Amino acid sequence: MPKTIKKVGVLTSGGDSPGMNAAIRSVVRTCAYHNIECIGIYRGYQGMIEGDFKEMGPRSVNNIVNKGGTILKSARSVEFRTPEGRKKAHENLVKAGVDALVVIGGDGSFTGGLIFNSEFDFPVMGIPGTIDNDIYGTSFTLGYDTALNTVVDCIDKIRDTASSHNRLFFVEVMGRDAGHIALNAGIGAGAEEILIPEEDLGLDRLLDSLQKSKASGKSSSIVVIAEGDKIGKNVFELKDYVEANLPEYDVRVSVLGHMQRGGSPSCFDRVLASRLGVKAVESLLEGKSNYMVGLREDKVILTPLEQAIKGKSEIDRELLRVSDIMST
Amino acid sequence: MPKTIKKVGVLTSGGDSPGMNAAIRSVVRTCAYHNIECIGIYRGYQGMIEGDFKEMGPRSVNNIVNKGGTILKSARSVEFRTPEGRKKAHENLVKAGVDALVVIGGDGSFTGGLIFNSEFDFPVMGIPGTIDNDIYGTSFTLGYDTALNTVVDCIDKIRDTASSHNRLFFVEVMGRDAGHIALNAGIGAGAEEILIPEEDLGLDRLLDSLQKSKASGKSSSIVVIAEGDKIGKNVFELKDYVEANLPEYDVRVSVLGHMQRGGSPSCFDRVLASRLGVKAVESLLEGKSNYMVGLREDKVILTPLEQAIKGKSEIDRELLRVSDIMST
Amino acid sequence: MPKTIKKVGVLTSGGDSPGMNAAIRSVVRTCAYHNIECIGIYRGYQGMIEGDFKEMGPRSVNNIVNKGGTILKSARSVEFRTPEGRKKAHENLVKAGVDALVVIGGDGSFTGGLIFNSEFDFPVMGIPGTIDNDIYGTSFTLGYDTALNTVVDCIDKIRDTASSHNRLFFVEVMGRDAGHIALNAGIGAGAEEILIPEEDLGLDRLLDSLQKSKASGKSSSIVVIAEGDKIGKNVFELKDYVEANLPEYDVRVSVLGHMQRGGSPSCFDRVLASRLGVKAVESLLEGKSNYMVGLREDKVILTPLEQAIKGKSEIDRELLRVSDIMST
Amino acid sequence: MPKTIKKVGVLTSGGDSPGMNAAIRSVVRTCAYHNIECIGIYRGYQGMIEGDFKEMGPRSVNNIVNKGGTILKSARSVEFRTPEGRKKAHENLVKAGVDALVVIGGDGSFTGGLIFNSEFDFPVMGIPGTIDNDIYGTSFTLGYDTALNTVVDCIDKIRDTASSHNRLFFVEVMGRDAGHIALNAGIGAGAEEILIPEEDLGLDRLLDSLQKSKASGKSSSIVVIAEGDKIGKNVFELKDYVEANLPEYDVRVSVLGHMQRGGSPSCFDRVLASRLGVKAVESLLEGKSNYMVGLREDKVILTPLEQAIKGKSEIDRELLRVSDIMST
């Protein structure tokens, strides 16, 4: 029989993403709703080791649903990778009366949570927070939808200048080893071609596509490139390669960078964060542990953390076809 | 055996919504991809009656993926409700060599398409375009996600002034007879209370909730009210009622209005539009008719137009609970 | 010889506006830069009466430069209009060791400051914070530029739907008795006609202009109406009047409302706030009192508070002509 | 006596900037207002040489006031630098009946216009269109205000992630040889330090400032760096240098790039464009030539093109002090 949970700890870990604050708020208020206590743990697992805690009530999270970043801050913790570090962290939680943990982060953060659980039999629940959408068990990670909007807004601006000058732009976007951002934002931004890690089109195909585009009467083009693409050249080398092979093109490069991680979350991300926070806390109260909450097929579901870590979040191959048709 | 389709007509009808242009673009380019012709029909069914057509190739839809409104314009057509009107429309289509129709709009537009099909055995495919998300057979209509972002952006701004002055705001949002926008944007914007047509909380519950909110230490509050709510008072009467019963509150009203229908579509709506346009055209090419394309459980699916019209797009009742917990 | 100032109090009063937080930050950091103390006074003059103060150092104002509203909150104070109220306020300031006051607000707030100064010989400096731009002595008040951008963004969205449906929209904007917002945002948004308090065009001219617009081939139009316009009809009556006289028009009304007061300040407002805060504090340190800081002819200048209150911020009549030409 | 002008040509040249379309619209409509004709010249001087012209009436410029980029497109023209090229251009203008020219662009474009005038005694009027604000004779160039807002929006997003991770960010912004964007956007975004070409702080000062910032309790910082700064290291070398000297800092770099040139213009830029377009055309009609229109000290004025080209648009040194105080 699971012991009754009286106090939940919540932390954010790994790269921050828009919607993390909305998720923290949801965890805190769901605890209050069920009359249990909640503490915020600062700077992820490192703050757990240092006992950097703060009691949080429903008013502690006023006016953060719309804020980017994370009020609990995030950090990588080398020390948490050691048994000693985790022991210290556990002692701090016990001392503070914390019975269960909600970890908002990506697969690295979940791995930490899983090890922690296995060592101390401590209830852990994960909420997927990353812009990269590279987590198995959810169709949408927190911050992904916001990042897509940030990227299309940027490319819309770049398109203004591209079409005024009849230029070709290479735009590099985030996504780690996954092409979700590139593929979706590329379609959304009307990209001519999209390079993603999951699909190596090869350089010839790129040149071919650009030539056809010119021939079809397009005067300017945007190519969206995932940071993790496997084409074997970075975006600047790619520019040189294309200019060498297609001298009619004047290529400009834009690396969108860290702004993709920030900004006020979209409505979708705020609602998602609210739903996942409720589910995470209520699952803990039901005695569940070692799950990640997620949204799949329009429903909030649980996936074992282990699967969430090992599984691969596949891109939707239908979108490759859509992208291809859209660049007709 | 269905006759081969060589030319598709596309029109937008009813209230416009962000993403309609992206859907037009997708229809046009999917036709080009399959080497069939496409014509744009201006001002919905009225333009069909007047023969207001334009040939559209892939370059006709350059740089519209990010534009709000509809380049084909929209209009209500009284004449199309008469057999004579529809006859004229059919003659124009035949004269122009159009074999099949893609109708982008809401249930009224689909009803028109269904009647037209029944009279002339003319292939029709629907794409759900409305900000209200009130169509059965799809979890998301085109423009809905964008409207949610528009609404939360507005309420974020209103919250600045609400919390600077410790005030209560009543914000009326669109949605016709459905509470989707109110419920989701209300959660996204951190509303204290949300009034929707699907759930009549009653005036007592509202007063009660506002009193509890004050008691809990909240200094300002937002109440989001769907235009179709059933509480029996309009938003201005509601203000008077609350001020009469809770004199400690200074209530302000904001009716967001038509700006909710405009704006550059979100990435989600652009990708959705692209996917639905491909599916609509390819379904016609496969000989299908009288379906609406939609997105459900993460997949593009077909729903018979008749069901799409008669069915009801239910709100997700889990969200009512999430909203309740979030306003703790 | 003025006595040396060691501690400055800062408050925001009247309607809030974007940039107030940036101004608070500037006042606080300018004090720190000159090694004098600073306290924040909550809820304007009311907080002064209640002694609702907080010590503020440079780190108290981290990450607020981009936030709408005012962290010091604002309130109207009836009590401050009485000699007793002001006496209490003065005692609180003296008790807290405050030597001088920076008042961020509009002319009502400045009048309060001027009376306070005359009664207690207390140094007062004003910073014009209002979206209405209706203060003499500065070409730009804090929040005005942001409000203009908010208004044109909204009208851009409305235009999407207006031009999709060939409709006429009446959009009411803020500005109290001044037409600055209406005139500038109207030009920025490409309005067909602009109704402002400073210039009564009369109803005939409006009808005439709308008829000409239709004749010239415009299919949709936006009319921007200042809330303080003198045409003698409110915006809904105006709609009825126009529809009665020009039946070819289908008029929709949008009242933008309080969202105009919120939102993250524009760069212009943030820089302006930073400059005015520095000048306000440094002017106090130089022994000056009873001035408002402002920006005129590209320079930060001082205007006696009395003039700022009594003077009228005229609209630039060149803009009326520009508006007229632009709607050709 | 100047000959009567009956037809004005308008072109955009050099780098595009938000507001150029609003300026084109203003030129076109001011011509219509005065009953003279107007033609648009595509792709700047190159289109003049190729006779790439289009008649433009008031309806040709509907719905472009809010669009970034330039509908007339822009291009660099090598041929226009030759007497033969200019001769061909002149012949085309004469053949098309064009009497006068409005050039929207930067100093390079104005130089072209001045030479053209000197060779053919052809009336030329300049409108300053560049985001860099580096033109003498106007306090604001078209697009500058919009670019400032784009930059602060980006840095606001970056700050979310910087403050979540306690990181230092180096953000490179545009501006060619001028520090206007960096200085103003840096103040607006609350940058810790701003590096501009006009003021070489030196590397020691930068290290010193960052150390003080850490000591003062700031947990994250943004340094804004103008692309033309003279510190002798590019932004990536600067990162290495700082990390080598201040190992406690984990520096990230973001180069904002071309998105700074795009986007829907701010209200300020739209109004400015409208005013400058009116003045440009009306000055030509008054027989003036070889001037640039601009806004200085809140007034629309004329500056001889020669001065506009040779003069230097100085930064406001008061802002350096404000920046210094703000980073206290």
Automatic annotation (TrEMBL), chains A, B, C, D:
Residues the entry annotates as binding ATP: G15, R76, S77, G106, D107, G108, S109
Cofactor: Mg(2+)
Active site: residue positions: D132
Pfam families assigned to the protein according to its UniProt record, in alphabetical order: PFK (PF00365)
Pathway(s) the chain acts in: Carbohydrate degradation; glycolysis; D-glyceraldehyde 3-phosphate and glycerone phosphate from D-glucose: step 3/4
Annotated catalysed reactions: beta-D-fructose 6-phosphate + ATP = beta-D-fructose 1,6-bisphosphate + ADP + H(+)
The keyword Transcription regulation appears for this protein: no
Binding site for substrate: T130, I131, D132, R167, M174, G175, R176, E227, R252, H258, M259, Q260, R261
The protein's name: ATP-dependent 6-phosphofructokinase
